[in-house]
Amino acid sequence: MSEENNTREKVQKPFPKKTVLLVIVTGIAIGVAVICFTLVAILPPPDGPLLKDPLRSLLTGLGLLGVACPLFIVGFTLEKRAATSPYYEEAFIATVFNIFGFLCFILGLICIGLSIYALLS
Predict the structure, then answer these.
(1) DSSP structural state of residue 84
(2) What distance in Å separates the CA atoms of residue 92 and residue 41, rounded to the nearest whole number?
(3) 10, 21, 81, 103: which has the fewest Cβ within 10 Å?
(4) Where are the beta strands (DSSP E) in the chain?
(5) What is the distance between the alpha carbons of residues 64 and 70, in angstroms, rounded to a whole number?
(6) Cβ-contact 106, 65 below 8 angstroms
(7) Residue-wise pLDDT tens digits, 21-68
(8) What is the phi/psi pair of residue 57, to 5°?
């Protein structure tokens, strides 16, 4: 019996490639968001109207996209885990994460679109 237990202990679990990849992508997205929002805060105020400043709008859009990525990852991970659960709370929380991620994604695209419009006009 002791030999059987020893062989069970020696068997290793496979390396969690998906989890490591999700952690790396989440870390990069959060880093991009922090850098972009820090740059927006450090930049001097524009001389003209704030809506006509394409650099601030682009950085804000990239920051919002950086915030949306971890929200989507957490939402989809919780959604997959909640699929087998008989309770609805976990699915509700996953839906809330997905909705906030979607809102940040749309607002980020709008900010980037406004920065392109400000550059063209």
Answers:
(1) T
(2) 34
(3) 10
(4) none
(5) 11
(6) no
(7) 888 989 999 999 999 999 988 988 878 776 678 888 899 999 999 999
(8) -65, -40
Average pLDDT (69-85) is: 89
Does residue 104 contact residue 68 with C-beta atoms inside 8 Å?
yes
pTM of the model: 0.78
Burial of 88 (0-12, 13-18, 19+ CB in 10 A): exposed
Neighbouring CB atoms inside 10 A of 83's CB total 10
Matching residue, tokens 């922090």: 34
Are 25 and 69 in contact, with CB atoms under 8 Å apart? Answer: yes
* Tokens read off for 118: 């400000």
- CA–CA gap between residue 69 and residue 48 (Å, rounded): 32
CA 1 to chain centre: 48
Helix (H) or strand (E) holding 39: helix 17-42
